[in-house]
């Protein structure tokens, strides 16, 4: 294979670090010609020094001789003190800079200066830390952020979760875990699969294997909604546990409780049970390629099936039994049925009343008395007066 070169550089966001002192580093996902992807961290002062050296190497392309020939993008100088606000606001400019840099002529974009700067360093994979000092805070660039810094809506603060048990990945897109691993959650999907990062590794992890650092995350879960939301089954599933439901593609059901591990409590007629949320689609909602791709995957493991007595989820979470779901669903359906009967009876009374009103003989209008001769002579026109003379 030939010399290494960079195909694409994507700015993911930045980290606020506290060792050896508080500072900020940008996170870049660098995609190479051998199809590998590496995560690297660079301070803005480093990036600016790299930029100055690049301009010196290519004076014509940097516009030092004639500004009309400049193709190397501009980059603002670091501020005397770079705080979080300037770090955040600079992301759009930096993302645009990297995009332009990679698309410059090969003599610039593939030169050793560029290649070496974005190569993985030892501190990219194992950053120097101190266990006594606060863990770095991660701020991801929003997915829909534009290249212009003015369009960036703000950072996303990543939540740190702990693995409660070992997990072996079953596909390339997933990430293996060891009990006790601390991961940053990048995206929480309703499917029960969460996209996480652990040092330089990223991948999908079952939410059931993760718990927050400070306590159960039940506050993020919605309360049961016994009115139910109508969903359509997009993929058949055969129950494995007693409290699960077996359904066929095309069945219409009602979702009454959305749980974080991706197993929702649903109601089919008067029967309730668990079903993988990734196989459901809200009634009337359009299908997407992402949802179709998710449905081709296996359902994530349920939280209740993971054996770990020390898990926060087993110590403090409010458990709702299937009997409670069934009883409350039955009560709700009964009250809804009674309400329907009440409205139906009321409607019937109104209809009967209207029918009685319609059947009543209508009163005929009274014939007004004929005006007197004097009234006609005083008030009517000449033509009318002639008729009575």
For this entry, give a set of tags.
single chain; 389 residues; alpha+beta; PX Domain; SH3 type barrels; flat; phosphoprotein; cytoplasm; repeat
Condensed summary:
The chain is α+β, with helices and mostly antiparallel strands.
Structure, described:
With 389 residues, this protein is α+β, with helices and mostly antiparallel strands. It folds into three domains: 6-140, PX Domain (2-Layer Sandwich), CATH 3.30.1520.10; 159-212, Roll (SH3 type barrels), CATH 2.30.30.40; 229-313, SH3 Domains (SH3 type barrels), CATH 2.30.30.40. It contains eleven helices and 15 strands. Strand 2 (23-32) and strand 3 (37-42) form a beta hairpin. The longest helix is centred in the C-terminal third of the chain and has 38 residues, at 322-359. Residues 146-156 have low confidence and may be disordered.
Query: What fraction of residues sit in β-strands?
Result: 15-25%
Regions with little confidence, pLDDT below 50 for 5+ residues: 146-156
Overall domain count: 3
Strand order, biggest sheet?
3-2-1-4-5
* CATH architectural designation of the largest domain: 2-Layer Sandwich
What is the distance, rounded to the nearest whole angstrom, between the alpha carbons of the first and last residues?
124 Å
Helical content (DSSP H or I, runs of 4+): 25-40%
CATH superfamily assignment of the largest domain? Answer: Phox-like domain
> What value does the average pLDDT take?
81
Order of helices and strands: EEEHHHHHHEEEEEEEEEEEEHHHHH
**What is the alpha-carbon Rg in Å?**
35 Å
What is the CATH C level class of the largest domain, in words?
Answer: Alpha Beta
